Hints:
Blueprint: H1 35-38, H2 40-53, H3 55-85, H4 88-102, H5 107-123, H6 127-140, H7 145-157, H8 161-174, H9 179-191, H10 195-208, H11 213-225, H12 229-242, H13 247-264
InterPro entries: TPR-like_helical_dom_sf, TPR_rpt, Ycf3
Keywords: Repeat, Signal, TPR repeat
Amino acid sequence: MIRRNAFITLAALSLSTAALLPLPVQAAAPASASASALDPNRTLRECAAKAESDPDVAFEQALRWQEKGGGDLARLCQALALFHKGDFKAAGARLEELAPLLGKDDPKAAASILGRGGWAWLRAGDQVRAEKLYSAALDKQPGDVDLLIDRAFARAEGERFWDAIADLDAALAKDPKRADAYLYRAEAHKALSNHRQALADIDRALELKPGDPEAILLRGNVKALSGSVNGARDDWALVKRLAPDSEFGRAAAVNLERAAKMASAPPERAPDKAKTP
Length: 277
């Protein structure tokens, strides 16, 4: 999230919160059905768990489940397996197709699948399609905080920072204790060179999540951009102490190294003025 600059920042690109919404639930089959048909929801949960740990095996299992009458739930598990295999375009397309089928009578289920699809398209690098699915999910679940945050992330990836801020404002109005939303909003303000607002959001995030190395790393980056190089070094050094083996600690170490090189580099010589005859 957010454009790169000389100092490394790591906005969380972890599994989307909307993608963790409950999977759709269908009514159990009659007692005369087979054991797997009796509880298709349990089969889906087991298949979804397998998709995370071993997506290739899960995909084959889901294909066999579909052959035995698993229907759209089996296809949903195939989509989850495709996601975890890294085939984000195929996963996004299939989830987009399944949302109106599995969520026909259940807006929450439809929003869940659309949110998963949005995350898949975001991982595929298609921010426009991702935002479209997140917006469709929000139509099903208006004001959902997780979906607002996820759509903000997609909008920021497309460098639509003010739109991202609008979503994060709405999310924080509903849940002012979301440290991640403050951090994402700080990233957006940083990209817009609104350094004062960015620092205020980082401070709020750190009040809610003290000692968070990601927030401290970002604070150092914003300080560096606003001209407070010593303050930036202090923050990066703190991140190294707090989480030396984390991605944030490694990014802080790189930033400190770059800052040291910049400080030791000789000043650029001004070009000679053209001589007049």
